[in-house]
Amino acid sequence: MTESRLHLPETSVPGGGTDIAVEDVHFGYPGRPVLRGVDLRIGAGELVALIGLNGCGKSTLLRLAAGLLRPSAGRVLLGGDDPARLSRRAAARRVALLHQSAPAVPGMTVRQLVRQGRYAARGPLGMLREGDDAVCRRALADVGVADWADRPVDSLSGGERQRVRLAMALAQDTRVLLLDEPTTYLDLRHQLEVLRTVVRLRVERGLTVVMVLHDLAHAARFAERLVALRDGRVAADGPPAEVVTPELLADVLGVAGRVGRDPEGGWPVCYPDHPIAVESDNRFQ
Ligand SMILES: Nc1ncnc2c1ncn2[C@@H]1O[C@H](COP(=O)(O)OP(=O)(O)OP(=O)(O)O)[C@@H](O)[C@H]1O
Fold it and tell me: Where does the ABC transporter domain lie (predicted)?
């Protein structure tokens, strides 16, 4: 594959409207172009997995969608508005972003950290109101860590911290959830638990979820739509059964391998063999 996009259907959600629109977005850091014309529409209620090689711009795209960065060209709309122009408080009410890592203040308890999700939604001067504690408790329960409320965050393992940070994002109680590698540090059991929780919450609460996943098996199984970035653009976009092919493995992920089907669930299953060279976006550095 050189110029081509592997699979790029019209994306629309029947009756759902668009929660995130990314229109011909360009973005780079000083001396480092990253996105070179990304077009993407994510409908209300969709569950999308974003995949691609390290450094291809997945986190950058989430940060643009959350309004933490502004595109150098093109535009991003979140519920019809430019998220970078919303106040921090207004943006925090619309979108929660689980970052890849967030430092914990020494001595802060899990309860205090998760409450930060509510403070973000209320703004710097916002007082926690009645009901905020219930939202925090629910968020902790959602990820199965209700018993940890009084534990210092810095006493938790990497995987435990990851689940608490997911609870913090859920405590924002937004309809749009952006999850940057939500399963990092988690053992297989907890990876499945977190992903099943995301799928459940998305249905129960009508969430729109975009999650960056490196594990293609999980992406293919749990997301209904895969978006692959390569060379600063969307290289493939569609249902896992159509998008996950040996060509995707080779051209987007740099892996030679085979693709089969789960005998019971029917979702694509990859059998990666060996790494191969990909035309890297380094060429436009
Ligand atoms: N603050 C920054 N300043 C300069 N360059 C940055 C900054 N943040 C990211 N980059 C660079 O931009 C590129 C895209 O980074 P980004 O974090 O979006 O990639 P990613 O696809 O999420 O990668 P990974 O899979 O490794 O998490 C990378 O080359 C990275 O080094």
Answer: 20-256
Q: Which residue has the higher pLDDT, 20 or 11?
A: 20
Lowest-confidence region among 54-68, 228-242, 266-280 = 266-280
Q: Is the CB of 284 under 6 A from ligand 1?
A: no
With the most atoms of ligand 1 within 8 angstroms of its CB, the residue from 26, 34, 70 to mutate is: 34
Share of the chain above pLDDT 90, in %: 76
- For residue 29, count CB atoms less than 10 angstroms from its CB and return exposed for 0-12, middle for 13-18, buried for 19 or more: exposed
Residue 59 Cβ contacting ligand 1 at under 6 Å? yes
Cα torsion 109, 115, 208, 65: sign: negative
> 154-169 in b/e burial notation, b at 16+ Cβ within 10 A?
eebeebbbbbbbbbbb
- Report how far residue 202's alpha carbon sits from residue 29's, in angstroms, rounded to the nearest whole number: 33
Task: For residue 233, list its beta bridge partners.
Answer: 230
| Beta carbons within 8 Å of 83's beta carbon, 6+ residues apart | 65, 66, 67, 76, 77, 91, 94, 95
3-state secondary structure of 138: helix
Query: Closest by alpha carbon to 38, among 247, 285, 254, 236?
Result: 236
Tell me the two tokens of residue 89.
């408080």
**CA-wise closest residue to 223 among 58, 52, 49, 40:** 49
The whole-number pLDDT of residue 158 equals 86
ipTM of the complex: 0.98
Sign of CA dihedral 177, 24, 255, 60: negative
